[in-house]
Write a structure and sequence with these properties.
single chain; 889 residues; five-stranded parallel beta sheet; two-stranded antiparallel sheet; 4% strand
Amino acid sequence: MAFVSRERELGILKTALCSGCHGPSRTIVITGSAGAGKSALLHAFTEHAMTVGATVLSAQGRAVTADPPLSLFHQLAAQLSASLPDDRPAPASSAMQFATALPRVADDGVVVICVDDVQEIPWSQLDFLIQTVTWHRDRRILLVVADSPHLLHRETPAKTEFLRRPDAERVRLGPLDAQGVREMITAETERPHEGWVRLCHHLSGGSPLLLSALLEDFKSRDMKIPPTGMEQSDELGMYGQAVMSVLHRSGSAAVKIGCLLSVLGDSASPDLLSRMSGISTSLIDPQLAALRDSGVIDGMSFRHRTAQRTVLADVDPSVRTELHIRVAAALYGAGAPATEVARHLLAARHTQESWQRTVLRNAAETAMGEEDTRLAVQCLELALEGCPEGPDRIEIHMRLALIALRMNPTTVEARHLPELMEAFQSGTMPAAACDGLADLLFGCGRLEEAFTVLQKQGAETSAGNVRAGDHPNIAWLWAWSSFRSPAHPDERPAAPLRHAAHESATALFRTAEGSLLIGDRDDWATAAENLLKVSALSDATVWSLSSAVKALIITDRLESAWRWCELLVEESAAREAPGWQAVFALLQSLVALRQGKLKAGLDCVRLVQQVITERSSAMACATESVLAALYIEMGRYDEAARVFAKPVPPAWEKSVYWLSYLRARGSLLIATNRPHAGLSDYLRIGKLAERFHVDHPTLVPWRLFAAEAWLRLGHPKQAAYMLAEHMARGPRKSGRNEAMALRLKAAQAEPHARSRLLLQAAREFHASGDRPELARTLLDLGQTLCVLGHGTWAVLAGHTAVLIARSCLEETGVPCEEDEPDPPATPQRLTRAEHRVAELVAKGLTNRQVAGRLHITVSTVEQHLTRIYQKLGITHRKEIRIHLGTRTA
């Protein structure tokens, strides 16, 4: 430790030594907190005393309490053994040996007796030392002792006895000021930055011992540049050990108070310390003042978290647990905030009493109000550990599930829904809790179970008691599946749901939120926009907002849906709620798929996958379904096939998201020339849609998918039947579904009627914002116009389709317009081999399938495709079909 800023105190000692050479004995008491540099000052003074010829006798108070102990006079007499008279027998005790030898040595010159840590020495030994020096007060003896004030020691009279002597003088060592800290740092680093001086001064409190430890911890840092701020979060090992050393050198009372402060944390107060330690209030303040003076604490807290952790780790675990429990009880009795009490219960992992669980639940709500989700989850999970079976346990599970949704929706399915469903099935769930359970089930896509819960709720709850907004999912579902627009009175009403579910949905439909969502029954999208504008994102509204975005998607308000998804994803990220972020990012990926923003859709899916890592969850099913659909739109069939090659968890088939999975898989099967398998998936969707009560053309237009598969199989009658069934169930007369139906009608119509239907479908797809479907429709329109002999219009439709397809594929890794050479003015003729490859690719076969069919390598297929792209002036395999049709015509 560098000896700095103690020149004045050292000068006092030197002056006393000089005076002692010519006069009677003197006593100097050096006071200062542990670590203040008393030992360093004594060492510097004894070196000076020896250089001027004085006899120096040194003793350590800590040696008296060591094991084995070495008394004060053993230490002093050992240094005077050579001065004992040879003609007399040695005294029996070391104290008498010292008393006998001291005057003889003092006759030869100045004797300096230095005793460090005098507070550790028993009063009996100190009293004899004082008496011995008093007996020889006329001799040149300088007694210098170092003492720590304001601490509870074994013997207290020594503190006043030294100062009662008429020749006594007191020298106090206080903390280093900023200049002293700067000098000490400069001894290690030349020209340290002022930021380091301020930081070290704060963390050390001016204690030379703590400052030395800090410099050791920071020795790898460049102190010539400003500190980065990370130093406050570093683990400072030497500093922590130095704090422990200061506490132990300050006495048992200091150690006890330090341990209590480490346990209490921000809850510490003098009154609580007194009650916990058993030390009277009148003595607590001096103890705290001494610890502040030593630099260990600032106010009632440690100056660095490392100090608190080090001291806390030194406490026996069982003692630490008991202390946390006692502190929690004391704080609860004093009316402390719930979060303050809960932190001690969390540290003790103790919830055996009902008041403790109440405190934890209240603390969780407070934490949620402060956006501290992690603390809320910790409190509720601990409350759940000690909670017996009953309504309270169900309520805690329900609250935990809502909060868990913020972090990871899969946690809801894996940890909370099983026990909640078990309580529901066993009949122990209160009727009021069914509302929340239905919300959770709808959020996980488990509609069949949700309707079962609502059936019980409908039997036990009157429509007048249903609260507005309890089931927004039901509100929009019912609005979609039962609403008849006045603008289209000829539409048939939707097929009713199961009777009990119908009753529940009708009751909910009459609630305030149900009315808001469907508005005046003529503009669902406007009502959904209103809901999004007036509702703040919270645990209670996350499903409502999700439902409103779905309403925008199904009503073809894709731009609005995209904008709201962006805002909600950003807000979720800002509030550190990755679970909410995943919910809205998944919806955004659906919008991107419809709009043809394929690269953006992949980015959204990747964001969801960062949160949804457990494949057993239903949301993982939805995520992989959208991912596969995006790959299919890009023509990356092999990657889509790899998605479907993974094993299917059993939970997926219980979720409504399984319908999306079957839809995407069926699309891949159709695109890769396996229409029988694709039709099987589509028909399965129909059965499940009826079971899940969503068999309505607006929600799940599975009959359109099946009709397309029947056409691929060459069965136009079955396709026409499916199309008629779809139309008979009352779909809207405009929008994406209507456009899909028109395109299927066109496939069965004569060329002249086909062109009219395709043109109408193209208008609807354009209005709905579905660019991929618009591109496909324009391809079909170009082929039809070519057959009719309208070559110019056919080329225009085909080129427009190509441009739309390119815009959808930009930045997806698929070659874009800029990556290819300009197409030739006149398409070049394909070779026979290239034509065979082109025909198979146009039918939807993958490169590997084409290679197997033609008995060539995949690399050869890729080379043929490169030449085909160049000759036809295209950039993607989907464009081959129209060019082959044009050239054939």
